[in-house]
Automatic annotation (TrEMBL):
SMART domains: EXOIII (SM00479)
GO molecular function, one term: nucleic acid binding
UniProt name for this protein: DNA polymerase III epsilon subunit-like 3'-5' exonuclease
Alphabetical keyword list: Exonuclease, Hydrolase, Nuclease
GO biological process: DNA metabolic process
Domain Exonuclease: 3-190
Any one Pfam family match given in the protein's UniProt record, by short name: RNase_T
Amino acid sequence: MEKLFFYDLETTGVRYWKNGIHQISGAIVIDGKVKERFNFRVKPYKDALIEEEALKIANVTKEDLETDIYEPFEIIYKKLTQMLTKYVNKFDRKDKFHLVGYNNASFDNAFLRAFFVQNGDKYFGSLFWADSIDCYVLASNFFRKERASFENFKQMTVAKKLGIEVDEARLHDAEYDIDLCMQIYERVAIL
């Protein structure tokens, strides 16, 4: 059984050990079927460094993070783990999700793992395989013969090159970005 956890994060900076998450979005896909989609707005943990530059990228303000739209990170952690354990038995070493995202191997995965630790959970590996599926890497292989001609390799650029319509005004909203990622995955994954 193939269990994929497509996800994207928006953060308060680029350092997982100092900054926090303010949005987690994605989809649980099992054997090619979307079982559940989610979009959580997160109040970062109390000691998280919140950098204005990072918030601007996602069109969010510090004041936004204090509204009721953003739930405490402990509550989001509970919601997320309750959702995950509907599909994975964390006590079965052979039953785990593959993490799937765009540039997740070098960025999002560390933030997600830190999110678990911030919630007192050292068992991230009981839900997810240690290796992940990074659509950035898959696309690099897919476009290996023409990679040098790309202006950059941002998700938007790759999506457009694959013929995916991109609404630039919606970029850096994790819910929108994960939709782009899933469409990229459908085109570049070798199944």
